[in-house]
Amino acid sequence: MSVWFAIPSACYSQAKINLPKWKAKGYKVAVYLTTGKPYGKINADLIQTGAYFGWPKTSNLIAKFVIKTIPDCTIVIAGGDDMFPLPTDPDAGIIEKQFIQHFKGTMGVMQPTGDLWMNRVAERICGSPWLGKQFIRVAYKGMGPFWPEYNHFYADEELKVVTAKSKLLWQREDLTHYHNHWTRNHQQSPIHMEQAQQSWETDGQLFVARRKLHWPGW
User: Among candidates 166, 164, 160, which has minimal Cα distance to 146?
Assistant: First the structure.
């Protein structure tokens, strides 16, 4: 069995630093690289390339690619280049067994909430969720774990809401995915985030509209 950290990679400088931290804790790493963008050598076990469709839809693509390509994969973790597990947390295999025991299989979502950044935002969203293989297969009628119409924001918040309502969410404050967000250390916004920020308002409007309709397609 194996657990995969699988993300659209947008920032090579962060990926070069943080992806080895996942591998050091026993995780496999898969990245989705946008066709035509320059990348250096990236420390990944599996690479998928293609057009970029926004974080939610592209995260769905790489998650589904992993479970289709790797037969022994049980769990895929979504997130970004700027996230990594704490060295003090258990290795991937230990948490994997706990996940499967808790859900009695892979139909569930687990979110580490130990990162206290930004007033415990990790408790309010599923920004780096552990996604069970069966959940990936059936979520949103087979489209994947995130609603694909969002461009960048709010898909992780919707995932938290719908899985909590469906009793498919396990939040664990004893585990931490550290989010080394650019605002955390007062750094300059990366170019890809400047582009993503343009969709904040429209993504927010979509979230409000879907909430009023009780999350159609879920």
Answer: 160
- So what's the architecture of 2-212 in CATH? Alpha-Beta Complex (3.90)
Domain coordinates in residue numbering, the chain: 2-212
Residue of 25, 30, 38, 32 whose CA lies nearest to 5: 30
pLDDT in tens, 182-200: 567 756 655 565 566 678 9
Residue 10 and residue 192 in contact, taking contact as beta carbons nearer than 8 Å: yes
Nearest to 180 by CA among 37, 84, 79: 84
CA distance 163 to 181: 25
Statement: the pTM of the whole predicted model exceeds 0.90: yes
**List of E strands, the chain:** 2-8, 28-34, 46-50, 73-77, 83-85, 109-112, 130-132, 169-172, 177-179
Alpha helices by DSSP H, 45-128? 55-69, 92-103, 117-124
For residue 49, give Cα distances in angstroms to 54, 62, 142.
14, 9, 21
Residue 188: strand, helix, or coil: coil
Give the tokens for residue 183. Answer: 């605002």
- Give the pLDDT confidence of 9-33 residue by residue, as tens digits: 988 888 999 999 999 999 999 999 9
3-class DSSP state of 114: coil
The answer for 190, left when phi > 0, alpha when psi is -120 to 50, beta otherwise, is beta
Question: Which string of b and e fits 158-179 if b means at least 16 CB within 10 Å?
Answer: bbbbbbeeeebbbbbeebbbbb
